[in-house]
Design goal:
With 250 residues, the chain is mostly helical. It contains 13 helices and no strands. It has one domain. The longest helix has 28 residues.
Length: 250
């Protein structure tokens, strides 16, 4: 990593931590995590035993709805605000590589995205401190579940970054990334509808709920890892091409 990358990364991370929207998102995510935990306890209290806590937690619809909405809100300002304030001209004319700018913005928002999940993990420690009992944790399913959260976050954030570089308007950028993310998310449900086995397998390949179900059971599958990593690289490359085009026009 170059020195320019670290300078830009600190700038992006600091901007997110100091912005009001960052703290609003942290609060919203903490509330959603708390509600999700209460729902898990309620289901288990009603005698549900065929699912683990992690499966229930990641199968709740409001969890995914918030995630689909959260990423566009988190990423809409990354390039759009640069256009609005005019600082994009400085970036395009400065002796800084496009890759450094894009990776700095991506890694900055990814660091903040990971921070959103700290309360859910910290809850285990709080529970143990309050009750004085050791929390029985299945570490493999827990680790694989949060690996999926990381991979999905990287993929969605790269889409959000691409949406932000396309428009000077933050609302338009958010709508572009929201539309792409929502289409990819709901496309997986077509596996229940298509009769052709080939198409069913293709839609299953991108069906996020089935992927999360397997990982939350402790079953590792390399296919989602490859899909999300290549998808992330693809959208980051698209972002770089758009930015390079703007640099040539400028």
């Amino acid at each position: 990593m170059t020195r320019a990358f670290w300078i830009l990364w600190k700038r992006e991370t600091g901007a997110l931590l100091l912005s009001p929207i960052g703290w609003v998102l942290l609060t919203c995510m903490a509330l959603v995590n708390g509600f999700s935990f209460s729902q898990c306890v309620s289901y288990l209290g009603n005698g549900v035993r065929e699912f683990t806590v992690m499966q229930i937690y990641f199968y709740l619809f409001h969890f995914w709805f918030v995630l689909i909405v959260l990423v566009p809100v988190l990423t809409m300002r990354l390039f759009s605000e640069e256009y609005k304030t005019g600082t994009i001209e400085m970036l395009l004319t400065a002796p800084v590589r496009d890759g450094d700018v894009i990776l700095a913005k991506f890694c900055g928002v990814l660091a903040f995205y990971l921070l959103l999940w700290v309360p859910s993990l910290a809850g285990l420690g709080v529970f143990q401190a309050v009750t004085g009992n050791t929390v029985p944790v299945a570490w493999v399913p827990l680790g694989l579940s949060y690996l999926m959260v990381l991979l999905i976050g990287m993929f969605y954030l790269s889409i959000g970054l691409f949406g932000s570089v396309l428009s000077r308007n933050q609302a338009v950028s958010a709508m572009i990334s929201f539309t792409i993310i929502a289409l990819l998310f709901f496309a997986g449900f077509l596996s229940y509808l298509v009769p052709d086995p080939g198409w069913r397998e293709a839609f299953n390949y991108i069906f996020i709920l089935e992927q999360m179900r397997a990982f939350s059971m402790g079953l590792f599958d390399s296919r989602p890892v490859v899909f999300y990593l290549t998808g992330t690289a693809f959208f980051l490359l698209l972002t770089q091409r758009v930015m390079a085009g703007r640099r040539l026009k400028g």
